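Practice problem 4.
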């Protein structure tokens, strides 16, 4: 294997805050690494250091000569006056720059340089490259090439930046939260793209399915040290637990030894005067080791929900559109007590708009939401809370309440509550601008839950949260005594939390699916496969019928030489009765599948029967066609 990157004894700190010390690792060709750590412990900082955007206190970083590196920043930055196509094709690659010139020429009225550009396209063998670029742009839904960067939303800008690094085809690709702002279809395409690519990869992501399916190696920063696991995310979970158990066992032995040595050190000086000086020096090493802990600090979400009555909300025939784009059309839904709904769909189909209408932030064009009197919403927004960056963390929480009601007469001070969210007393007096992106999201979650909501509305809650926090949030939502609506592109999170899905298909088409995302994905793939088979069979039947029609009659006769036998006549009459009955059963099954009332097992069983019926109908129709031509 060819070594691309070698990091040796790297150390980084901000003042007294040590992020990591003497960490070492290497990346070779075709290796795909994921970096895992808690928020605020240096993931993005490490990526910035490797990309050359940040300095460090000690150690060394070396690259293979002429190594091409592509870096997707968590918050990408392009000149605002740049067009989308120029941002996507911003590269040192000659083929990419030639394609950029070709695209500009084709979009303009002036084609004077077209001959020269076409010869350059041939010279750099850029035609296949251009097809591949168009596929990337299409999959990431980048279509308005002349739009200016300054006019894009944060999500659109992230997709443009992702397209730029993928198109450049670097040897080493560094990605910071690549799945943020991508819909599920884009995420699954990106998974497949990276698995098939020859690029080496180093990335930070909270998407655990993505980690499991793409990565070959895991790097973990824990207590300022680096640990490496040669396997995917599932392998990492298993081996990490073994590492912690081994550490704890070793710690117990060290603590016992420390107690004995401490007793010896506490004796009168004359009692140990004759002892070796090396034992005294060894004591301080044992003391330092014994005081280290491998605790699994994690967010503790034990906030109680307010009382929730039986009436939640009723969406009464809601209509909403933006010009020609329909979001909802005469939509009716009665939300049940303790219901946990997941909302999925492509970007731009109206998921966030639906939440804002429910919360009263956006008015529907017609219809209304009838909300129960006991409902207390807690809204965790996609954009996060607009904190005053110059405020201290403790003041952000105290502005909401000095004390938090935990239920059963128990209360907690604002400072104690922050400690449940891993904000130490020292961190609480930090200014907000000093927090990492993930820590700001955690603070936002804290401000939502401290109001004791009984109906949580979560819009992309997984973005920028570390995996530890996500696991605890999932456990909390599973046992939450209230209602939940969550919009998320995190498939693992959705599988753990929701009871059913509301699928936004676009143009006001919605489907209520009884199951989690994995159930829906399996069902959807099965239906798509059946549709393809059905289309193929219909095309084959039409082709066969046309071929039979075009066959010349022998000696110019219009009719066949022979007539149907008695047996064939009976079979023909039987088929004329059977085919409509099979078609009717098939239609009934399709209505059942679309009803949203079936369990997962019933869906699979019904889908299998649907496939059997397709085969039967095809077989009997072909036989009917053969007999009808005699």
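Answer key:
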């Amino acid at each position: 294997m060819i070594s691309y990157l070698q990091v040796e004894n790297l150390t980084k700190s901000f003042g007294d805050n040590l992020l990591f010390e003497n960490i070492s690792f290497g990346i070779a060709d075709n290796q795909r690494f994921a970096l895992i750590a808690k928020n605020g412990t240096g993931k993005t900082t490490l990526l910035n250091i490797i990309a050359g955007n940040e300095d460090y206190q000690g150690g060394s970083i070396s690259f293979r000569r002429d190594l091409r590196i592509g870096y997707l920043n968590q918050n990408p930055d392009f000149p605002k006056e740049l067009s989308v196509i120029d941002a996507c094709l911003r590269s040192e690659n000659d083929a990419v720059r030639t394609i950029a010139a070709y695209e500009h020429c084709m979009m303009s009225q002036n084609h004077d340089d077209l001959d020269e550009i076409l010869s350059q396209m041939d010279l750099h063998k850029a035609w296949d490259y251009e097809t591949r670029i168009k596929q990337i742009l299409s999959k990431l839904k980048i279509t308005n090439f002349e739009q200016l960067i300054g006019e894009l939303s944060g999500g659109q800008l992230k997709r443009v930046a992702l397209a730029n690094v993928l198109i450049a085809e670097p040897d080493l690709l560094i990605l910071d939260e690549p799945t943020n702002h991508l819909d599920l279809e884009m995420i699954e395409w990106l998974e497949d793209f990276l698995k098939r690519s020859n690029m080496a990869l180093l990335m930070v992501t909270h998407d655990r399915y993505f980690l499991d399916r793409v990565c070959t190696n895991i790097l973990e920063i824990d207590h300022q040290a680096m640990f490496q696991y040669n396997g995917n995310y599932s392998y990492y979970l298993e081996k990490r637990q073994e590492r912690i158990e081994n550490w704890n066992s070793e710690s117990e032995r060290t603590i016992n030894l420390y107690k004995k040595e401490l007793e010896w050190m506490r004796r009168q000086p004359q009692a140990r005067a004759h002892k070796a000086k090396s034992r005294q020096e060894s004591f301080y090493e044992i003391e330092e080791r014994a005081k280290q802990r491998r605790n699994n600090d994690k967010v503790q979400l034990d906030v109680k929900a307010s009382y929730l009555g039986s009436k939640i909300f009723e969406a009464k025939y809601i209509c909403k559109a933006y010009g020609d784009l329909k979001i909802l059309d005469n939509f009716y839904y009665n939300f049940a007590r303790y219901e946990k709904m997941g909302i999925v769909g492509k970007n731009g189909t109206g998921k966030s708009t639906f939440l804002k209408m429910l919360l009263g932030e956006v008015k529907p064009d017609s219809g209304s939401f009838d909300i129960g009197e006991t409902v207390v919403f807690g809204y965790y927004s996609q954009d996060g809370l607009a904190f005053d960056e110059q405020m201290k963390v403790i003041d952000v929480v105290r502005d909401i309440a000095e004390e938090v009601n935990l239920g059963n007469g128990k209360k907690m001070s604002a400072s104690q509550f922050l400690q449940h969210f891993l904000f130490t007393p020292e961190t609480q007096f930090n200014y907000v601008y000093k927090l990492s992106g993930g820590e700001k999201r955690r603070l936002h979650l804290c401000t939502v839950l401290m109001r004791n909501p009984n109906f949580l509305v979560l819009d992309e809650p997984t973005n920028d949260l570390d995996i530890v926090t996500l696991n605890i949030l999932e456990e909390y939502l599973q046992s939450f005594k209230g209602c939940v609506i969550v919009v998320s592109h995190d498939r693992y999170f959705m599988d753990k939390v929701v009871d059913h899905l509301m699928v936004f298909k676009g143009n006001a088409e919605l489907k209520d699916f009884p199951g989690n995302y994995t159930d829906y994905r399996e069902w959807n793939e099965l239906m798509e496969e059946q549709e393809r088979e059905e289309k193929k069979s219909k095309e084959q039947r039409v082709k066969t019928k046309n071929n039979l029609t075009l066959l010349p009659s022998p000696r110019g006769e219009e009719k066949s030489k022979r007539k149907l036998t008695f047996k064939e006549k009976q079979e023909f009459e039987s088929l004329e009765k059977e085919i409509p009955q099979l078609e009717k059963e098939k239609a009934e099954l399709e209505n059942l599948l679309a009803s949203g009332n079936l369990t997962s097992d019933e869906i699979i069983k019904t889908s299998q029967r649907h496939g059997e019926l397709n085969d039967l109908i095809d077989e009997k129709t072909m036989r009917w066609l053969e007999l009808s031509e005699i």
